[in-house]
Design goal:
alpha+beta; three-stranded antiparallel sheet; binds adenosine-5'-diphosphate
Length: 281
Amino acid sequence: SRPVKLSVQLYGYGEGRRLLLARDVTALEQAEAMRRDFVANVSHEIRTPLTVLAGFVETLQNLPLEEAERNRYLELMAQQAERMQHLVEDLLTLSRLEGSPLPSSNDWVSVRQLLQRCENEARGLSTALTRKQARPHMLEFPADEVLALAGEVAGASAELHSAFSNLLGNAMRYTPAGGRIVVRWESLPDGSARFAVKDSGAGIDPKHITRLTERFYRVDRSRSRDTGGTGLGLAIVKHVLQRHGATLSISSTVGQGSEFAVTFPPLRIRQAQTVLLPPQV
Ligand code: ADP
């Protein structure tokens, strides 16, 4: 049994009559503690890049620097500004997800379009990396024939795209150059469907797995920051999936890689109609 916190008030009324009012405020206090933690986390996440930025500004103001060195400082400053931008964007996305009505289950999104958009973006990112002289990842996406039969999923296209691309982005960010990333879409016999991103990255120790979707939870803070992470990606994924009746399962082996899989229930999936051609006479 967990401890319960009660707020007790005693009212006197009439002749010697008393009313004792006891309220269970456990949940209220927990929510308040979570809110405080969240504000503290956000402040910390903003303060760090701001401190770095202020430091660079001071250096630029006070030291006579060569042009090349000055440019290097400006580049580092731009990185910090970009980090804050991503953080604010992710915070806004989360707050929008929390405040907006559930996506309609009558809007159908083409799985083919969704995955093709993710593929184009991932390949773009990979090309950009190659320009920076890192070996590109080996990216594998479902073949056209699979996508043609993938059908549709009910929900909000922008939200689903943000969830899928977050998972794909993580796979790329936590897999060293040249690693392999496989994206799959499977329609299952019971009418449900499964989207999965498998990587050959560092993997995740099982003790962290249940906490990964908490806001700002990271296995390795510095690694997450170095790769441009805000610590909010999987919290966004979790919210989007909840709003779509879908579930996330994570399996991982340290040193071998991870798989993040999303399962949509049958009600949310419209299988592609297979056209039966009349028999040839
Ligand atoms: P971040 O911005 O830090 O990547 P996320 O919420 O997207 O935030 O992920 C939370 C943490 O989960 C990451 O910091 C990382 O430790 C871990 N993680 C997420 N995806 C992967 C992956 N594909 N491989 C290994 N670790 C991962």
